[in-house]
Amino acid sequence: MSRRRLLGTAGAAGATGLALGAAGGAGAYAASRPAPATALTSVGTDSIPFHGAHQPGITTPLHARGHLIAFDLAPGAGRKEAAALLRRWSATARTLMAGEPAGGGPAAGAGTDGGHDTGIALDAGPSSLTVTFGFGRTFFDRTDLTARRPAALDPLPAFSSDHLDAGRSNGDLWIQIGSNDALVAFHALRALQKDTGAAARVRWQMNGFNRTPGATPHPMTSRNLMGQIDGTGNPKPSEPDFDRRIFVPATPAAGTPSWMAGGSYAVVRRIRMLLDDWEKLSLTRQEQVIGRRKSDGAPLTGGTETTDPDLDRVGPDGKPVIPSNAHARISTPEANGGAAMLRRPFSFHDGIGPDGTPDAGLLFVCWQADPLRGFVPVQRKLDRGDALSAFIRHEASGLFAVPGGAREGEYVGQRLLES
Questions:
Q1: Which of 136, 208, 366, 387 has the greatest count of CB atoms below 10 A from its CB?
Q2: What's the burial of 319, exposed, middle or buried (CB within 10 Å: 0-12/13-18/19+)?
Q3: Beta strands in 83-184 (DSSP E)
Q4: How many whole angstroms separate alpha carbon 174 and alpha carbon 400?
Q5: Which of 11, 1, 62 has its CA nearest to residue 363?
Q6: Catalytic: which of 162, 195, 230, 243?
Q7: pTM of the predicted model, to two decimals?
Q8: Diameter over CA atoms, the chain
Q9: Which of 2-6, 53-57, 191-195 is predicted least confidently?
């Protein structure tokens, strides 16, 4: 019996709109439209297809729980071992996303040496589980595939606001796990970790969360840990240029290998929010830093959350109503040559640091067809004068090539590894 059938409730899971990382240093537009709100008891029944033109977890509505994990191939492991690993990972992801037990059957209480489901999520449905796989720059060196490495995987430039921990950055392989149930997400994390065997070892792992679907009376854009409505402006799938901005075309341009057709590039940043400093600001000052009202996300020039800000309006004092260094002004695509990306972050809280401040902030994940035309130009501009920079710290960074979705009978990355 599948985990989906065990749930015993019906209906599709509701979802809030994708949250933006306003503190993520990348101004882009919205991820997808909010789905209708549903009762919390129906959240577990929704499932996302594993196969498709694109990998799941990119345009999927924002999840309530997520894990980001990077691996390095083990010494001596190469292309053959990597192919076997991606085959195992893909099989497990496909099974769990369908709401079925890992390893061929339920075995609650089974050991952790592989071959059986642990029973962690035995009572749950698929809960919109998605698993997304990507390759870091160093993966191509370790597998003798440097000739097939995309030019877009060149290292990101250094930014003056960076305080990066190399041990929590980059990696040969990257996995994003998302679900609307924490146990389902952990179950997938544990199953994929077990599948790794001796082929690779964990480089870093980060855990995140967002608002649970159905937690508000009606669909609303999420708030980040600064309390800001955060997700108003992502590019929408209904827009005619959405695919061009977010996904590599079916016939890739020069410098992009054919195996990336339908794929995307993920920039991953761990951004610490200096919440104690932020919370000392008055409400008025917080709104000036962001350029939007805290209550409803509307621009300071008026209207609603979705009203375009009037960047030319000045107040009675002759100064711009939206300050010249406000995050919303600097990050708008109009100020960055139309640069856009799909931001799909998670919040994180990893306890209280030795200095008594919360280790909390944003696991910023953004998607684009080319990071040099999406993330990089926007972050460069933010780096030069964003008022929000005084209240955030970029602590880790990664860039990953995420191939297109696997066809029926394929595993993710097969067109790269078996070409």
A1: 366
A2: exposed
A3: 130-135, 173-179
A4: 7
A5: 62
A6: 230
A7: 0.89
A8: 70
A9: 2-6
* DSSP conformation class of 345: -
Residue type, 165: D
Can you tell me the mean pLDDT for 30-46?
A: 63
For 17-148, list the strands marked E by DSSP: 65-73, 130-135
Write down the residue that tokens 């071992």 correspond to: 81
Place of tokens 């695509």: 333
For the chain, the first-to-last Cα distance in angstroms comes to: 37
pLDDT tens digits for 137-146?
Answer: 999 999 999 9
pLDDT at 340: 83
Opening angle at CA 239, ends 410 and 237, nearest 5: 35
pLDDT grade for 14, boundaries at 50, 70 and 90? very low
Single-letter code of the amino acid located at 140? F
Rounded-to-integer distance, Cα 235 and Cα 389, Å: 24
Would strands 200-209 and 130-135 be described as parallel, antiparallel, or unpaired? Answer: unpaired
Amino acid at the residue 81: E
Give the closest residue to 391 by CA, choosing from 228, 271, 235.
Answer: 271
Bridge partners (DSSP) of residue 135 are 173, 401
Q: How many residues does the chain have?
A: 419
**CA–CA distance from 387 to each of 156, 283, 326 (Å)?**
22, 15, 6
Q: Report residue 35's pLDDT band, with 50, 70 and 90 as the boundaries.
A: low
Query: Is the pLDDT higher at 10 or at 147?
Result: 147
Q: How many domains does the chain have?
A: 1
Structure tokens at 307: 């009203």
Task: Report in angstroms the alpha-carbon separations of 73 from 43, 83, 91, 149, 266.
Answer: 36, 11, 19, 17, 20
**Residue 203, token pair as written in the block:** 């480089």
pLDDT in tens, 285-327: 999 999 999 999 999 999 999 899 999 999 999 999 999 999 9
- Beta partners for residue 320, in sequence order: 314
Q: How, if at all, do strands 358-368 and 264-273 pair?
A: antiparallel
Q: Does the annotation mark 230 as catalytic? A: yes
pLDDT band at 112 (very low <50, low <70, confident <90, very high): very low
Domain that holds residue 411: 3-417
- Give the H/E segment covering residue 195: helix 182-196
Nearest C-alpha neighbor of 12 from the set 41, 48, 40, 43? 43
Chain-wide mean pLDDT for the chain? 88
